[in-house]
Automatic annotation (TrEMBL):
It comes from Triticum turgidum subsp. durum. Residues 228-387 form the NB-ARC domain. It holds the Pfam family NB-ARC. This is NB-ARC domain-containing protein. GO terms for molecular function: ADP binding. It comes from the Eukaryota.
Amino acid sequence: MADPVSAAVAVGWAMKAAGWVASPIISELYKKASSLLNFDASQKLKELEPKILLLQRVMEIVEESPYRHRLQQLFNDLKSAFYEAEDILDDVEYYLLEKQIQDDYLKLEVAGPRRNKSHVKKLLTSAMKKCNFLKDQDCGMSKIELKQSLEKIEKVINDACGFFEQMNLPNKSNVNLSKPANSRGAVTTARPPPLVIGRDKDCDNIVAMLHDKEEDAQPDTNRAQCYSVIGIHGISGSGKSTLSQLVCAREQKDGHFNLVMWVHVSQDFSVDAIFRQMSEAASRTPCPQFNNLDTLQTNLEKKLHGKRFLLVLDDVWYNNRDVRQYEKLQQILSPLNAGEAGSKILVTSRTKDALIALGAVEQRCIPMSVLDKDVFLKLFKHYAFQNVCVAADDRIRLEDIVTHIAKKLKGSPLAAKIVGGQLRMRPNIDYWRSSRDGNHLDDTMGALWWSYQHLDEQKGLLEVAMKARIWKMFARDTLMY
């Protein structure tokens, strides 16, 4: 067996690699490149995503595998190909930006005041000299190079999948290649974990909102509704689903609502599937196989009629640029007005936009609270020491070590669960001490934050990076003005 330090580094590398692969940067690159190269990004991603899912899952389980070095090389090749394509894409986008700036300047030349024209011309001339933007023929060459780089990414992914076929990995048979990477197969239920730490106060606050009669008298829209919407938002792994499960369990015992329904909303959901889940949650019986969506909706309305309900819509994904997705969310709401006044919808999502799209007002969009340091330490110890039997003296030493490790995890419940689980599997002082003293946990945290932030936040980071590079072109002259 590998020594504790090597094992710790292996775990850190595997989690970092899995986090990078799971992040949306590859899909973002393809979507941006598709508009320049005129190809169907959705079709290409549909082909690649099952392979990326396999790559991610193998990275998660490889850890101390003898194949780790070969996998590390494939992972490095993939990152290299990605960054090469990203650089070329930047060049092409900068060329297009130059054209846009020139067009805007021509408009200013016609309409703008003389002193503004002079300043803009100065900025434009200075920026163009500094940036050495691409000419038309260079842009054409860059597009060819971009296409070649995308093909290189595909080749690395395909080579990796071919290599996996030769590996004898544990649980490899459980990898479902037919499932897209972002479909997120882990479906949540209304039942909370046996032990929930540090969320009692948050649960009390949400329950108070659900029972608030004054809030019922303030409809979220102009049309009369029997329900109002409360939302919880926060990054993945922050405890949104767990908090909602806690609320659900409380309400099922309390009896304030006639019906308590839980529906997990997948990223690429279908309206009829959501209606079926609602129907089964309302009646506790299998939903009849209606082939017509209108019939399914009418059946659901009958089950909700005259009943005050609580509906939890867990893990809703929403892109505010996707009109079709907004329309589907509105369809989900369409049968719910058959209920009794005072009904509530509790929504969890990574972004506030999803909550607002479903009808929550700003005051009812609740961010996940950060756990107190002592509470977080208690949570981390729960994961690290669960069912672990060690001598009393060793336990004292491990308790001290785990206190220092907790400080590296930035208060993330997801990190506490993952890292605590790794420590629990190796309850020896040397391994835990190497985890405390090494820097691999810092790298792991970087991968976790990159991998599990909401897609829209990733887009925001990409946009900020682009704007930062553009800012460098103009900052000096602008500050002197």
